[in-house]
Design goal:
Oligomer: single chain
Number of helices: 1
Number of strands: 3
Radius of gyration: 13 Å
Largest sheet: 3 strands, antiparallel
CATH topology: Ribosomal Protein L9, domain 1
Low-confidence stretches: none
CATH superfamily: CDGSH iron-sulfur domain, mitoNEET-type
Distance between the termini: 26 Å
Order of helices and strands: EEEH
């Protein structure tokens, strides 16, 4: 099993690499291509939620990533 890594992109999506399963609110799994990274929407404007469609660029999304880290 590969390590899961979530990379916060500056003013953009969350890039997820590793073996993950994404499940919707009804309990259905999304079919994800094995061995590839996925990008999850962080701005709330994607038309392909929960996945990023680069809408953050169009809307000028600015992230506040300066929150204190959990210990």
């Amino acid at each position: 099993m590969s390590e899961v890594v979530i990379q916060v992109r500056e003013n953009g999506s969350l890039k997820v690499t590793g073996a993950v399963t994404v499940v919707d609110a009804d309990g259905r799994e999304f079919a994800l291509p094995e061995g590839t990274a996925i990008a999850l929407c962080r701005c709330g404007h994607s038309q392909n939620k929960p996945f990023c469609d680069t809408s953050h660029r169009r809307v000028g999304f600015t992230a506040d990533d300066s929150a204190p880290r959990a210990v």
